[in-house]
Each structure stands twice: as C-alpha cells, then as structure tokens.
C-alpha cells in the first residue's frame, strides 16, 4: 500500500504550502553506514572516556531520531504563531514542558543521578544579557532556517544550507564568548530566580505554578487562533502500526513527551539537562586557539570552563549529545528514504550566514538557546527561561519583516500548512 509523507520541519524551512512526497524505500546502505559510525564512535568512547559518554551518545541519537520523525521544532512554531496565530506547535511545547517539569521536580529536589554526581538545573540570571541575546536569537533562527537543535537535525537530514548555518553558528558563539563579560558584568543584570528555590515555594509549589502557566499559555493560543481565524496545520499522512515508529511521521504530542523523558534521562546521566550551544563555543574556540588566538584569556574560559578548553572534545558531554542528534537524524531520514543534499540558493546562503552568526552570539548572551534556555531553563523552574521565550517571540516577529529580503516565505492567513 502506498503511503505519503510530508517532509516538513519546524527546524528547517517549514512547508507553508502543503507538499507531499511518496514514502520512499529505506536507504539501507546509508542506514548501515550510520550504524557503523555509531558503533565505532561508541567503542571509541568506551575505551577512552568516562562511561557516561557512550550513554549520552545513545540519548543524543534518540533525541535526533525523535526530532526528525516528528518534525518537532521551535523555529516554525514561533513563526506560525506570530505570523498567523496558529498555536498548535506551541501547545505541543506546553505538553513537553509539562512532562519535563513533572520529571525534573523530583530529580532536582532529591539530586537523583545515575553516576552519583547529583543533578542541577539550568537556573541563570535575568537581565540585559538574556533580553538582548534571546531577541537576537529569535531573529537568527528565522533567518538561519532552524534553531539550535533544528540546525543539528537538519544537518543530519542532509539539508545543505544548514551546514552553512552551523558553521556560522559556531563562529557567532565564539564572538559571543569573547564579548560575554561586557554583557554580563558591565550591563544591568539581576540574579538567578528559581520558582522552586528563590521564591520558597519548593518544587511542589513550583510544579503547580508551572502547570497552571502552561495551561494558560495553551488557552491563550486557542483564543488567538479563534480571533485570527488561523489556518490549521495540514494532517500529515503516514504509515500505520509498528512501521510508524521507524518510518512514519510521529504525532507532535507524542514526540513532546518522548523529548521530555529523554531530557530527564540526560539530567540524571550527566547531572545537567540537555544543552547544545556550549559545544559550538568549545569547537570554535579550539579552532581559534589553533590559529594563535588567545581564547584562554577570555572571561568565558576562566574557572570551571578552563578545563574544558584543555581537554579533548570527546570528553565534553554536550559535544557527544550533539554528535548523537546528528547521527540520529541521519538514521531517521535514511529510514524514511528521505536523505539527500538539497541545492543552495544565493539569498538563502546569505540568510544562513547572518542567521547562524545571530544565533551563536545570542545564545551565548542568553545563557543558552531554545534547548538550554527555553526547554532546559523552564524545565528547571528558572525564570530566565520564560524571559527567553518572550524575547525570542519578539525577535521572531521582527524577523517576519526581514525574511522576504532573502527570499524566505512568511505564512499567510490563507495558507494551510504543515
């Protein structure tokens, strides 16, 4: 029986005019190659690194597989809501966050971890750094065609322009690290605020407030949709039965719960939630150091971070998670018969360069990206995660007026899109 598959992603350029392609046969040679690479990397990590590293590689692979199969993203979710008022993907974010805080609360309260290192969330200061950084990131992800996690899984899926986005994401991260003391020390910034600890509510009270907030946000999206008569996301044709796990499109809400569970596993495995962009800063700083730039003297690389700069990238937990996400997305795309390199367009390349730089710089200022600050921050009951979301939405709104300059589409009220 022939089935169809909508190749749309919130992290890549979303297909705002519905297009479907046949569900192709799995690309077995690519799958085999991906599994070999995974096995070789896992063995290397087992022999040379701490036991946590191969486990994180597996978690990263599952994250990438989930992101690709559900086309679960943040970029188009923000864009759809700001452009035409469609909040379906935003509501899936609320499901993800509700599941995450439910899992994170006991883990953080009791310091539960697999390796006895304890567990701590991402709770960061609020102020100028987050406001400016998240706004810049919001613009950047709309120009670059994907957020932090989206860039990784789009690269794994073969979207050629995202390799350019990733390269300049790394460059922007390094520049942001160099400028970070100005934004965090010279500009007005407050203290970290935890809904659980700073307010005295405890994790039970913080959990309850979080659930209420998520419900309120979901309700607001429904009100906005009704008021603006927002177009609905087109249903995604898919296969059925167990084949859907490997090849068919996954429901957003199901993927939301899976991502929350995997983030909780990450927290218990390495003692911190899922993150992405600190690895970009590490890779870029090592490259800069190799050509004679004294990055070790920067404020960013002082204290605990100094050891990271001196060690192998394979000892960095975020690096291994990123590798896993890329490989997982690659395997998912090959399983669906969808992996292929896409052609480049001049204006899109320019947008990718600017978008990558903006995301890298913004993520460093804002203590993270859509994963570390938005997902991980809110799941950790940090107020800065909510501030990040608001400013990234405002950056998205600003980008709606910039995207057409680079030949990038903006959803219209008459569109039915995926």
TrEMBL record:
Keyword Cell membrane attached: yes
Keywords: Cell inner membrane, Cell membrane, Membrane, Transmembrane, Transmembrane helix, Transport
Subcellular location: Cell inner membrane
Transmembrane feature ranges: 30-49, 55-74, 95-116, 161-183, 203-224, 245-265, 320-339, 351-374, 386-406
Topology relative to the membrane: Multi-pass membrane protein
GO annotation, cellular component aspect: plasma membrane
Keyword Cell inner membrane: yes
InterPro entries, per database record: Sulf_transp_TsuA/YedE (IPR007272)
Pfam families (UniProt xref): Sulf_transp (PF04143)
Family: Belongs to the TsuA/YedE (TC 9.B.102) family.
Protein name per its UniProtKB record: Uncharacterized protein
Organism for this UniProt entry: Alkalicoccus saliphilus
């Amino acid at each position: 029986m022939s089935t169809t598959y909508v190749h749309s992603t919130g992290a890549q350029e979303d297909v705002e005019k519905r297009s479907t392609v046949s569900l192709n046969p799995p690309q077995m040679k690519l799958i085999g190659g991906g599994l070999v690479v995974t096995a070789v990397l896992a063995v290397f990590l087992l022999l040379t690194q701490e036991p946590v590293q191969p486990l994180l590689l597996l978690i990263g692979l599952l994250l990438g597989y989930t992101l690709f199969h559900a086309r679960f993203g943040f970029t188009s979710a923000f864009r759809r809501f700001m452009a035409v008022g469609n909040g379906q993907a935003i509501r899936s974010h609320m499901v993800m966050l509700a599941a995450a805080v439910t899992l994170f609360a006991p883990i953080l309260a009791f310091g539960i971890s697999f390796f006895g290192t304890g567990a701590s969330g991402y709770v960061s200061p609020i102020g100028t750094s987050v406001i400016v950084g998240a706004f810049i990131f919001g613009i950047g992800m709309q120009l670059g065609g994907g957020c932090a996690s989206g860039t990784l899984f789009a690269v794994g899926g073969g979207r050629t322009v995202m390799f350019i986005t990733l390269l300049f994401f790394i460059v922007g991260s390094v520049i942001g690290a160099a400028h970070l003391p100005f934004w965090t020390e010279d500009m007005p910034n407050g203290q970290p605020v935890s809904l659980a600890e700073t307010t005295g509510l405890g994790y039970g009270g913080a959990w309850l407030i979080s659930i209420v907030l998520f419900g309120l946000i979901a309700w607001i999206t429904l009100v906005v949709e009704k008021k603006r008569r927002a177009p609905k996301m087109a249903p995604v044709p898919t296969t059925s039965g167990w084949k859907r796990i490997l090849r068919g499109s996954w429901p957003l809400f199901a993927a939301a719960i899976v991502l929350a569970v995997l983030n909780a596993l990450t927290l218990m495995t390495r003692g911190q939630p899922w993150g992405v962009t600190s690895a970009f800063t590490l890779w870029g700083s090592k490259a800069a150091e190799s050509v004679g730039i004294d990055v070790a003297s920067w404020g960013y690389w002082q204290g605990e971070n100094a050891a990271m700069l001196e060690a192998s990238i394979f000892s960095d937990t975020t690096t291994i998670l990123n590798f896993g996400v890329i490989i997982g997305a690659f395997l998912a795309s090959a399983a669906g018969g969808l992996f292929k390199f896409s052609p480049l367009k001049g204006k899109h390349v320019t947008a990718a360069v600017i978008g990558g730089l903006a995301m890298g710089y913004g993520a460093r200022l804002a203590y993270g990206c859509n994963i570390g600050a938005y997902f991980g921050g809110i799941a950790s009951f940090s107020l800065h995660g909510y501030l990040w979301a608001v400013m990234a939405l405002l950056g998205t709104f600003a980008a709606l007026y910039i995207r057409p300059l680079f030949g990038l589409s903006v959803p219209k009220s008459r569109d039915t899109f995926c």
